[in-house]
Each structure stands twice: as structure tokens, then as C-alpha cells.
Hints:
The protein is an alpha/beta fold. It has helices at residues 41-45, 89-105, 120-129, 162-175, 203-215, 227-236, 257-266, 278-284, 296-303, 323-332, 337-343, 346-351; strands spanning 3-11, 18-19, 26-31, 34-40, 52-63, 65-70, 108-113, 137-140, 179-182, 219-226, 240-249, 252-253, 269-273, 307-310, 369-373, 388-391, 394-395.
Amino acid sequence: MDTVLVADRVLVGDAGEVVEPSQPPAGVLIRDGRIAAVGTAAEVRARSVDAQELAFPGGTVLPGLVNSHVHLCGDLSREPFGTASSGDRDAIAALMRRNALSALRGGCTTVRDLGDSHGLAFTLRDAIAAGEVPGPRILAAGTPLTVPGGHCWFLGGEVEGRAAIADRIDHLAAAGADLIKVMAGGGQMTPTGPSMYSSQFDPADLAFVVERAAVHGLRVAGHAHATRTIIECVDAGVHTVEHCGWRTGPGKVELCDATAARMAEAGIAAGDTTPPQWRMLAEKIPFPEDFRLGDQLPWMRDHGVPILVGTDSGLPNAVFDRFPTSLELYTERGFDRAHVLALVTALAADTLGLADETGRVRPGLAADLLVVPGDPRDDLQALGRPQLVMARGRRFEG
Length: 398
Ligand SMILES: [Zn+2]
């Protein structure tokens, strides 16, 4: 049976594109999991004979949100990959299902998973796509490549030398990876490995990762906190630089204009990770006197660097269902709300290569939709009170 969603307005996804008829309300027709029509409620009703109608007076229909950096196998605790590295596949799978559900409940109809173990994100992705379990669309990188003893080595992705890199990427591709994740630099979750301020891979090996992934038509996400590592990622030709914090040491930040310009030119996106508890981190993390957490974001925007918004959910306290709280950092750093909405819908889909599938309320695309009270262009926190979440035309109940 068809479904018609009726609300005061439809935000298509791109900033400034809104269906707000002079004869309200607006409507969206959903058929077979896809958006079949968008227009006035009267227009879309006329396109169906047996539609079930769901009315949301005062509300807004918009595309489901895209969270571009999560770890579904993380358990939010201080040792977030304890379960993931335990080898207990049933426990890992159950944890991932719970987290996926939490993301969906929070309005995310697409998540990009940037690090699992045992390839279980592929299994979950396929089960969700087949309608066997509820959850968001998942883009999955599988187990990240890292150096021996390097960042997140315990997930099982250690490689050394070209042959091992090629072998690992070939296996990930065969297992169904949507992209390749490489720990180009160190990170905080692995105190025994290189620090977040240093690089892990030889730059030539990093370039080889990109080259090998390209053989399989796969893009590469490079994990890089440090300015030097970001530059090496850009040199290597990765497609996204994850975290992209431009750090050079504790309390030190070095924004490199030339590198940002190269990212803009090449379309290399910054995969920002702002967890919902960013206000607490802003107090805790040392920064230079003239720099606040997130100040790199408007700077990158002004350089034309594509920005993906993620939360690193799965890591300590970074819950999956409070994405709008992360978005507050953007508005507080001067982004306008319409731009933020586009960043987590249409622009994210464009950057992730999903524009033919999701990210906009447009006929032909998957019915990945959200209905929220009021107009989120006036108050982004409305996103945190969804009245309806629909993924691939399936209404989320629960
Ligand atoms: Zn991460």
C-alpha cells in the first residue's frame, strides 16, 4: 500500500530548496520503499488510490540524516572495543544491531561505519537492506588497515609491506567493503600505539593503499588528526580525511591554507567527528589561546573543503541517538542552519556517492525520511524530536 505524508513543508535537502505550497499542506507519496511524488498534498493524493495518509500538522518532512562517521561495534564505554576485539561474534553482532537501531531512532537513515571487526558490519548492512532487521543504510569499511601495533590494531587489520596491504584490501573488497579505511595516523584509543600527533604509514605505502583500493573501485577514508598526516593523506589522494583536526601536539593546532585549498580543488572531504558531548570535550582538550574546538570547521568551509559530519559514535559516551547535539557546534561556530541541514542530508549523499539513492526528498530516491515538529531551519533541535522516521519506506516503530 502507498503512504502519503502530509506536513506544512518539505525540505528537499539542498539549502533553500523547500516545497511550501501556497495552498498547504505539502505531501510526499511513498510507494515500494521509494519516493514517488512530492508536491501539494492534493497533488500527491491524486496520484494514488489506496494510500494510507499520515498527517503532521505544523511539521516538516526532510531527508533522513546521514551520520558519516560511526563505529557500530563500539560500546560507548572507556574500553569501547572490548566486545569488538573479544572474538565473540554473537555478542558483537547483537551490540551492532542495538547501536544501529539507536542511530535510526535518532533520525539517522544512513551511517558510514568506519571500523568493525570480523566484517560484521557487512552482515548487518545486508540484513538491514533485506528488511530482516530494522536499521539505517550502512556504508561499511570493515576492519581498518593499520600498522603492526598501530591505532586500533586489536580490530585485526595490521598490515606491513605492499603484499600484505594488497592482500588485505583484496579480501575486504571480496567481503563486500563499500570503502577502505586506513589509520594513516595514530589515535587516542590505542595508548600503546603511535600518538594522534604522528603518522603511521610510510607516505608511499599510503599512496599504494589508495591505488590498490581503486583497482576495486573503492574510495579510501584516511584517519588523520595531525596536520602532517592530513597532508600525507592529501598527497596520497584519499577521498576523505577523518577527524581532520589539524593538530600538531597537545594544545597545538596548525591550519594549513595550502592543504585546505588542495582538498577543495580535489574534492577531498574532511570527515569531522563531533561527538554529542563536545561541550565537555571543549573544556577538557587543550587548545591554543586563540582557538576553540571546532574553529577549523568554518575555516575549512571558507576554503571550499567538502565537510562530512560524523560523531564517532561507539566511542566513550558518544551515543548514537543525539546527532542534533553534535550539530549545535556548527551553528555555534557560525554555520547557518540551512547549510547544516544540507551538510547532513543532500551534501553528505553527494560526497559519499549516494546521491542516486538517498539524501533528498525527490521522486525516485529511497524513502529515507524524517518528520519533525515545526521548521528545523528555525531550530535544529527539532531534529531530536522526530515524529516519524522512515528508512527505505519502512516506518520505524519503537
Ligand atoms: Zn572513528
